[in-house]
Amino acid sequence: MSRVASFYDAYGEREWLRLERHRTEFAVTMRVLNAALPPTPARVLDLGGGPGRYSVALAAQGYQVTLVDLSATQLAQARDYAERSAVMLEAVIQADALALPATISGHYDAVLLFGPLYHLLTHAERAQAVAEACTRLRPGGLLAATFVSRFAPFRDAAAKDPLWIIQDPAYTEHVLRTGVHDRGELFPQAYVAHPTEVVPLMEAAGLTTQALIGVEGIVAGHEEHVNAVTGAAWDAWVELNERLGRDPALIGAADHLLYLGNKPIP
């Protein structure tokens, strides 16, 4: 994972600013979390949370948040953002989601796995990351995990580089068939998941599925003007995209998939 860590060490503020620019992704995710999370001051473990965009927001609401990431640089930014936002994170820890240290102990009320599954190229690694997250989750607790959709790089190519699909047709077919997109310069060692594989992966870890949501709803690739509105219009679009994102017919049309599941109570 050194390539991924190095990438994010050099990433600067792009992830924090990305979620400012892609307001729909952040707003819909927070809307879903606010409805699904247990009441404050529940303990939340944010695995792969980078600069802490979700950690800081949840801590500001009163959650006790532990942030974990591979990148020391991103974690330093998270500490700075938390300080500037006048919120306290319970802990900030550098670690690999595939091998969490014993210092991350106890059973959390919720675990966020937002990011690590974007970079794990094999099924075994993805299953291991989910299993590691589940070991830190209390019985009955919530696991929320995100995936990049299999079709996202093709939508991106259609908007920015339509010749991509013919420059190396064999590689294009490889991405479409396997989900392994390991030649990207802007997003290295990427795995893009087919929507139909998410629930089986998570349920194989023993989770009980609550929902699978296409985060951008109806606006993936068409969000520029929506992201510019405010007030009642913005609230209406966030509500609509969350509702449509739950429609099975639209899940694959989103760029990010959000899974919610619970660890069974023995």
Descriptive account of the structure:
- The protein has 266 residues and is of the alpha/beta class.
- The chain has eleven helices and nine strands.
- Strands 1, 2, 3, 4, 5, 6, 7, 8 and 9 form a nine-stranded mixed beta sheet that branches.
- The protein is globular and about 50 Å long.
- The two termini are 35 Å apart.
H and E string: HHHEHEHEEHEHHHEEHEHE
**Sheet of most strands:** 9 strands, mixed
Task: Tally the helices.
Answer: 11
Instruction: Please identify the structural class as seen in this structure.
Output: alpha/beta
Strand content: 15-25%
The oligomerization state is single chain
User: What's the N-to-C terminus distance?
Assistant: 35 Å
Low-confidence stretches: none
What do the pLDDT scores average to?
93
Task: Looking at this protein, list some descriptive labels.
nine-stranded mixed β-sheet, 266 residues, alpha/beta, single chain, 9 strands
What is the element layout, followed by pairings?
Layout: H1 2-9, H2 14-21, H3 23-36, E1 43-47, H4 53-61, E2 64-69, H5 72-84, E3 91-94, E4 108-113, H6 123-135, E5 137-149, H7 152-160, H8 164-167, H9 169-178, E6 180-181, E7 190-193, H10 195-204, E8 208-214, H11 231-245, E9 256-262
Parallel strand pairs: 1-2, 1-4, 2-3, 4-5, 5-7
Antiparallel strand pairs: 5-9, 6-7, 8-9
